[in-house]
């Protein structure tokens, strides 16, 4: 059996860079343009909604939120689902890809609420078929901090417990993330996919079990590397988008600066504020580029570390197995020698 891939990541703002990657406004370098027509939008947008970013915004506007959304607040959660490369290709060749997509949509609708799943895109133009799901983290109930505060003081008026809130932290607690991995693997078991290894304990293994474990570790690594590579490609796409925006802002800044110079020559000050605004936006974009570059570097380091750890674990398993075989052979020879005496 192969392994499932389920990766969840918080997104800020309109997440336009990821939208450009998912919607294929820009074709990434790792995609095969001859297969891009095989990609599919699994959830149709409502009338007037043009893309994923607009779908996120519409859900926020229609959710009935009572608190203002903060500038740094998480507005969407990116979810990437797939499986071990060989198994996803097998599912594709067996003609079960549509069924796999439908089961994925059902799982996320049942888990997070259909109304909160605002976008889902199947990509078949990259190496391994996968789905990008977009979740708007709308939850109900009191904030955990307020609930704790109210437990330590008297309530003078009863407050509703079904308040609609935007809160990614409620969805992405450590226990819930583990639960998603478990329940998602159960939902995908019918396709010959299982949860990745969550840790292992040393024990005596037969030769057959040893090689089965080696293969299981290799498959698990492949699934994790596929996930990390996709994260890296998304980050690279966002980086390209941010650099493009910087170039656009530079051109705007040059034009506005020229206008400001002309305006100043006749005693007008209207242009200065625009220049300062553009400078601030330009600085913010440069910070975004730096953040994306750090993310890409961190992902690359993580991939290399994972591969090194995997190789080390394989060597350790081999050494342990060889020692067990040698010890067993020694004991066998001693028993034979004892019987002969």
UniProtKB/TrEMBL annotation:
InterPro entries linked to this entry: Mob_Pre (IPR001668)
UniProt cross-references to CDD domains, sorted A to Z: MobM_relaxase (cd17242)
Domain of life, per lineage: Bacteria
MF-aspect GO terms: DNA binding
Gene3D superfamilies assigned: 3.30.930.30
Region (Disordered): 309-341
Ranges of biased composition (kind: Basic and acidic residues): 309-335
Pfam assignment, any one: Mob_Pre
GO biological process, one term: DNA recombination
Name of this protein: Mobilization protein
